[in-house]
Write a structure and sequence with these properties.
two-stranded antiparallel sheet, 1 helix, 7% helix, 42% strand
């Protein structure tokens, strides 16, 4: 299962994690020095939700930016059948 958004295609990106040591200068120290640098991955915040695609309802993995920006059409909830 891929860690990609099904609507915008956002996936993991690579960055660095810095390890620092020391007291900052504004607190009276000599300054903060970098003692290590390692690669890490930033993963998108994916949510599994039901989405209206065309005339059918599908379950997709969607990032929260797509949900908040309104790119996703939620399915219309209908009441169950009620006999007259």
């Amino acid at each position: 299962m891929s860690k990609k958004c099904d609507t915008c295609g956002k996936g993991p990106i690579v960055g660095n994690q810095y390890t620092k040591r020391g007291k900052p200068k504004y607190l009276g120290g000599n300054g903060v020095k970098v003692t290590g640098k390692h690669l890490r991955r930033f993963l998108p915040n994916l949510q599994r939700m039901q989405v209206q695609v065309g005339g059918s309802v599908e379950t997709l993995r969607v990032c929260t930016q797509c949900i908040r920006s309104g790119l996703i059409a939620r399915p219309i909830k209908r009441k169950p059948f009620q006999p007259a």
